[in-house]
Amino acid sequence: MPAYKLMYFEAKGRAEVIRLSFAVAGQSFEDKRYSIEEWYKVKQAIPQHQLPCLQVDGRFIPQSGAIMRYIAREFGFYGDNNNENTRVDVILGASDDFLKNVMSWYYEKDETKKEEIKKDLEETKLPQFFSLLESILKENDGGDGYFVGKKISLADIMIYDITDQTSSIAKLPAFPPKLAGLIDRVKNNSKIKEYLAKREKLSQ
Q1: Which CB contacts under 8 angstroms, 24+ apart, belong to 96-102?
Q2: Which residues are in the GST C-terminal domain (predicted)?
Q3: Exposed, middle or buried by CB within 10 Å (0-12, 13-18, 19+), for 83?
């Protein structure tokens, strides 16, 4: 079995969906979290000089999207055929589109503009995103299961992580009914539940 080392900062950020994916896979990994000072010392040795980066038996994989897809393919939650793979990609693409709004809030320095972005998130962008997810979810088993196939996939993990992290900067609107059920199923997945319990202890 390969040895995995995930490198990131002491934050959820772009690494958390990867950590959650390892949890779903039941795969142990080294969760290396750099301080800013430590990062500057090793930055030049990391491909593309950015994090997250995954090391697999000494081989480096940069880019969060590549890492999460690698893990999902490796451990069987990227879909069971090309149609399902593509469906996962559609949801990941929609997620990337939405996250641009969150990142614009994160990088904005002007407090007035920051508040405007937050207001737009709460009143427009989040309701639109949730409505889109609800319609996509209903296309598979009427929305009573997962986004893809009959089991949890990277798409479900990604949406759970987005809602979790976005709730720290904006008030989430009520989830549409099918999406609410999906979030509960992911959160109550036995392996994710175990990971979240450990994560809560680490944050205390």
Answers
A1: 96/65, 98/125, 98/129, 98/162, 99/162, 101/125, 102/165, 102/166, 102/169
A2: 81-204
A3: exposed
Separation of alpha carbons 12 and 7, rounded Å: 12
Extended strands (E) in 66-148: none
Q: Does the structure show a pLDDT above 90 at 94?
A: yes
Question: Do residues 100 and 94 lie in contact, with contact meaning Cβ atoms separated by under 8 Å?
Answer: no
Query: What is the dihedral angle through the alpha carbons of 17, 19, 183, 150, rounded to the nearest 10 degrees?
Result: 90
* Encoded tokens for 1: 């079995």
Q: Among residues of the chain, what percentage have pLDDT more than 90?
A: 95
Residues in the chain: 204
pTM: predicted TM-score of the whole model, two decimal places: 0.95
Q: Is 149 left (phi over 0), alpha (psi -120 to 50) or beta?
A: left
- Taking only the tens place, the pLDDT of each residue in 154-184 is 999 999 999 999 999 999 999 999 999 999 9
Tokens of residue 161, six digits: 């992580």
Distance CA 44, CA 41 (A): 8
